[in-house]
């Protein structure tokens, strides 16, 4: 099992398309198109989408632009677990739990959770149409353990184990897809999936749980277990919903005073060493050998160039030493200086 082998050679930076679903704000179609094209022009060849992002809006926008390029030159991942219906609803009234209002500017189509085998196949078929393609290389099972499930997330996991897990394993064995895994923002379902004796995932898209602001839980068990199973991780949300990139959100909500204070400490250290916080955020995630790639999102073309520059920006070793000394990163977190 290896996600890295399924990505374009040399890929470290991919493109997360949640913002293209009108995340937090309504993005003009032209701006969304320019952003995807900017990603292409900067050499990005891995794109991650999901039906949930604006009720299919992100997939539609991504498909429109990528259809202009050769399909053999890029890799797509999308997600299953939610099916988009033709029925229209009040977007602001959606019961999205912790993500309430995040995609209030998306399409008004109703979405239903469906982790069964049939729901998985329908979701993939619908995504193929929106993405204007005949295949998707990697499929993630989306949001199995959202907080709004409470303790019921285990029952949702069980439905997926009997449905989506087995359906995707069959598709992988048949060569229809190259890999599958979980796309979640909690580590517990990933840990549980690695313990299964059947239908094992190839890896995980872990959103928000391996960032400068939140990585301790992932380091305890998930990272070592993933390494032991050769299951690699794509890090989503490396800027923690934007607060590490100058935004105001953390975990899809307004950042708390405590989080903002921590961000200010990181900014101060970054300023002393004359580096960008974006560079620190991306290179922190990539320093872990289990991480296959990072996929920050962007809704403006100029952000793509910033992300690309951040991956290769030179960060002094003293920056990382100070971050560790100030306990802003866990003592056992792999850092770029540890590779020297």
Describe it for me?
It is an enzyme of class 1 (oxidoreductase). Its EC number is 1.1.1.107. By secondary structure, the chain is α/β, with parallel strands linked by helices. It has a single domain (7-258, 281-315), classed as NADP-dependent oxidoreductase domain (TIM Barrel, Alpha-Beta Barrel), CATH 3.20.20. Helices cover 37% and strands 16% of the residues. It has ten helices and twelve strands. It has helices spanning 29-41, 57-66, 117-131, 153-173, 188-194, 216-228, 257-272, 277-286, 301-312, 317-325; strands spanning 15-16, 46-48, 75-80, 82-88, 109-113, 138-142, 179-184, 203-207, 232-236, 249-250, 253-254, 291-295. An eight-stranded parallel sheet has the order 1-2-3-6-7-8-9-12. Strands 4-5 form a two-stranded antiparallel ribbon. A hairpin with a 2-residue loop joins strand 10 and strand 11. The longest helix is centred in the middle third of the chain and has 21 residues, at 153-173. The protein is globular and about 55 Å long. The model has no long low-confidence stretch (mean pLDDT 93).
Summarize the structure.
InterPro entries: AKR, NAD(P)_OxRdtase_dom_sf, NADP_OxRdtase_dom. The protein has 340 residues and is of the alpha/beta class.
